[in-house]
Design brief:
This protein has 294 residues and is of the alpha+beta class. It is built from five helices and 17 strands. The strands form two sheets. It has a nine-stranded mixed β-sheet, covered by helices on one side. Strands 2-3-4-1-5-8-7-6 form an eight-stranded mixed β-sheet. β2 (31-33) and β3 (40-44) form a beta hairpin. The longest helix has 14 residues, at 220-233. The structure holds fe (iii) ion (FE). Residues 149, 151, 212, 214, 263 line the site of fe (iii) ion (FE).
Length: 294
């Protein structure tokens, strides 16, 4: 089976550009890349041309998500695999490849209606080393673990599981418990590399396509510095500091200027070889202000 290798990039729509630049660069530490395109700017986390394309005036939500395959042969094999699974896609034009800064691109839609792209050959800009938007003790965890992870809105989690399986990802339910009212809560996590999960779903449905994006630092200190900067700016922390039982990362969830969450973390554990499930986190992750699809 051909598998995607990482969550490569995402595109988001925003309204408040000044607030977003402050949040993503001065607080979280990403690098602003503005190429004077009228409708977009970029955020970098490493040597890639960009990891996040930020589209001005395009709502306040996730616009698309890009999954990488390793090369042309794997890209072509993925196309055959999708055909065999009955999943519709179309190949991107050369213009669309330039737009995404990749060599090969296909476009499809996941069962939750999320615009999904599979690509190979991202543009890596070694001429421009990553330069954080604020002083950083370490770096962002990317490399073979991709940009981070996303929790997506999926009304039909079974359909979503089978879709991401068809992309070669593996995983399943990792949190399951009976609520006091007798209903069952289940959260599904899928991985495709060392990162414990790259996509997950099963959280309550909200109006946003995305619940959160998680980014991870190599150094715990950077997670703390970001936390201090958010406290100073009175950024709403929707879920307080805690450690997940699955990825073991120390994280908290902060509202971004579009009203969805960024999970800020460090020291995550790799994906497990054998499947297991949990009823609770190790500690913390207390819900603070209500809303944010939690
Ligand atoms: Fe998360």
């Amino acid at each position: 089976m051909i598998a995607v290798t990482e969550l490569g990039y995402i595109g988001i729509g925003i309204q408040d550009e000044a607030a977003w630049i402050e949040y993503a660069t001065k607080v979280v530490g990403m690098e602003l890349r503005d190429e004077s395109e009228p409708d977009r700017f970029y955020l970098r986390l490493d040597a890639w041309h960009h990891r996040i394309a930020v589209h001005r005036g395009a709502g306040d939500d996730l616009l698309y998500i890009g999954w990488r395959v390793s090369g042309r042969a794997e890209f072509e094999a993925m196309a055959s695999q999708l055909e065999a699974a009955g999943i519709a896609f179309r190949l991107g034009t050369e213009e669309e490849e330039f737009e995404r800064h990749v060599l090969g691109l296909m476009k499809l839609t996941d069962p939750g209606g999320i615009a999904t792209e599979i690509f190979y050959g991202p543009e890596i800009d070694f001429k421009r080393p990553f330069h954080p938007g604020r002083p950083m003790h370490g770096k962002f965890v990317t490399g073979n673990q991709g940009l981070g992870h996303c929790i997506l809105r999926q009304p039909d989690t079974e359909a979503a599981y089978h879709f991401y399986r068809a992309l070669g990802m593996t995983g399943g339910v990792e949190y399951k418990r009976r609520r006091p009212d007798g209903t069952v809560s289940k959260l599904t996590f899928m991985h495709c590399n060392d990162r414990q999960h790259s996509v997950a779903f099963g959280v309550p449905l909200s109006e946003k396509r995305i619940n959160h994006l998680m980014v991870e630092y190599t150094e715990l200190a950077d997670m703390g510095v970001t936390h201090d900067l958010m406290m100073e700016r009175q950024t709403p922390i929707a879920v307080g500091l805690g450690i997940h039982s699955n990825d073991k990362a120390l994280t908290y969830y902060a509202a971004n200027p579009s009203g969805w969450l960024w999970e800020i973390g460090a020291i995550g554990a790799p994906a497990p070889e054998h499947h297991e499930y949990y009823c609770n986190d190790i500690f913390g992750h207390r819900k603070e202000p209500p809303g944010y699809g939690l």
